[in-house]
Write a structure and sequence with these properties.
The chain is of the alpha+beta class. The chain has 3 domains: about 5-90, Zinc finger, CHC2-typedomain (DNA Primase, Chain A, Alpha-Beta Complex), CATH 3.90.580; about 100-245, no CATH class; about 245-405, Rossmann fold (3-Layer(aba) Sandwich), CATH 3.40.50. It is built from 10 helices and 16 strands. The protein has helices spanning about 5-15, 20-25, 70-75, 80-90, 100-145, 155-160, 265-280, 295-300, 360-375, 395-400; strands spanning about 40, 45-50, 55-60, 65, 150, 175-185, 190-200, 205-215, 240, 250, 260-265, 285-290, 305-315, 320-325, 350-355, 380-385. The strands form 4 sheets. Strands 5-6-7-8-9 form a 5-stranded antiparallel sheet. Helix 1 packs across helix 4 and helix 3 packs across helix 4. It is globular.
Length: about 400
């Protein structure tokens, strides 16, 4: 965008606003946003909304939406760029026609320098705090993992069998006998019970965190159905703890793999493995299967947004705000905040597994974006995309014997 000096200064003031400050001004900030993640103010969930205080950015991994305080206001309000700048600064758009005086410029540059230094010092402090927090979290996650038992013959195996899934003995899974489910907002445990733990391994090969699935074998799919004690809303039976960025849960591994299957959830990936295993497929030769834990970890951030074909924005006054914009298929040029999952140099083929049980349009774009990310970083790779049927995931399709069709 090309602005007059006045508008440029106005936009700069908005960009200098800390995301945390804008969230606090709205009364919706939670410390979890800057640590383990919190429910998204727009689309809910449990821990999908996060804030990087050092970079002054927010991100919702469900929709792949993120950015600075201006982007935050656009996301929360469904507003355009200029309306968002007005919201963040509390100032109307300046008159473009009034020329900037030398004194105006001096004051603008001095204020920008002061705010920049203030933000730099604050970000340095918050970065040090985040580093300390991440290491403490990694240690806590490792304690959870160490408390787990061999999953073979445990309720974890019963859960997988209930879902029609097979996993090899070396899958990075464990059984947690009595695992607490913690509600950070209520500041208390709301459940104790059996859970499946998956070890998340980071791009550096180190233990990075733990993926947790609480179990209840009496339910149709074997997962815990836990209502919130106050609202009655059902908690997500799955949580990650630690750093999922660039990490995977290794489910099937081998020496010098030549083919990788990578999907979002553990059950999705095991459904494809189970189908190929039943067929005795040659695709299993030299193949590894990994769960990325969430879609954002595959797709990354997008370079732009596209109009959704069916979803619409409903403004506060009830009027139609036009098509909802969702992250497109082109990956961002630079994505320092979200490291790419590390693919071994021996791998020549990468198969990305996309579920259809969420929004198929957005999921397809995210998977294509992920394919472009991996193809750009790993020139030796042939990247393929396998999508489940609309309104189903691969585990659903396995139940219909359609995975390998």
């Amino acid at each position: 965008m090309s602005f007059s000096p006045q508008v440029e200064a106005w936009v700069a003031r908005a960009r200098a606003v800390r995301v945390i400050d804008e969230l606090q001004r709205r009364g919706i900030y939670s410390r979890r946003m800057a640590s383990s993640g919190a429910p998204c103010p727009v689309c809910g969930g449990v821990d999908r909304f996060s804030v990087n205080a050092r970079k002054n950015l927010f991100f919702c991994r469900k929709g792949g939406v993120g950015g600075d305080a201006i982007a935050l206001a656009q996301y929360l309000d469904g507003s355009d760029f200029y309306a968002a700048v007005e919201t963040v600064t509390g100032e109307a758009r300046p008159d473009d026609l009034r020329p900037e005086t030398a004194e105006d410029r001096r004051q603008r540059e001095a204020e920008w320098k002061r705010r920049s230094e203030q933000i730099r010092l604050q970000q340095e402090r918050e970065y040090r705090d985040q580093v300390d927090y991440r290491e403490k979290e990694r240690a806590a996650c490792h304690d959870i993992w160490r408390r787990g038992y061999n999953w073979a013959g445990s309720p974890v195996q019963a859960y997988l069998e209930k879902r029609g899934l097979y996993a090899p003995p070396h899958a990075k899974l464990r059984y947690l006998v009595e695992h607490p489910y913690w509600d950070n907002d209520l500041k208390r445990r709301v459940h104790w019970g059996p859970a499946m733990a998956g070890a998340m391994v980071g791009p550096d090969g180190r233990f990075a965190g733990v993926h947790q699935t609480w179990l209840d074998l009496s339910t149709p799919k074997g997962k815990l159905i836990l209502p919130h004690p106050k609202t009655g809303e059902i908690y997500d039976a799955k949580k990650t703890r630690g750093s999922w960025k660039g990490a995977t849960v290794p489910l099937v591994t081998c020496a010098a793999p030549e083919r990788w299957f990578l999907g979002e959830g553990i059950e999705t990936v095991l459904a494809v493995y189970t189908a190929l295993h039943r067929m005795g497929s040659p695709l299993l030769e030299g193949a590894e299967f990994h769960s990325a834990c969430n879609l954002l970890n595959i797709g990354g951030k997008s370079a732009g947004r596209v109009a959704h074909p069916t979803l619409r924005i409903v403004r506060k006054d009830g009027r139609d705000g036009g098509p909802k914009k969702v992250p497109g298929a082109t990956p961002a040029d630079v994505d320092d905040d979200l490291p790419l999952i590390a693919i071994p140099p021996s791998v020549r083929e990468l198969v990305l597994l996309g579920d259809g049980d969420s929004d198929p349009f957005s999921t397809d774009l995210a998977m294509r974006r992920g394919g472009a990310r991996f193809a750009r970083a790993y020139r030796q790779l042939t990247v393929r995309l396998a999508m489940a049927r609309a309104d189903m995931d691969f585990n659903d399709m396995l139940g219909l014997a359609e995975v390998a069709a």
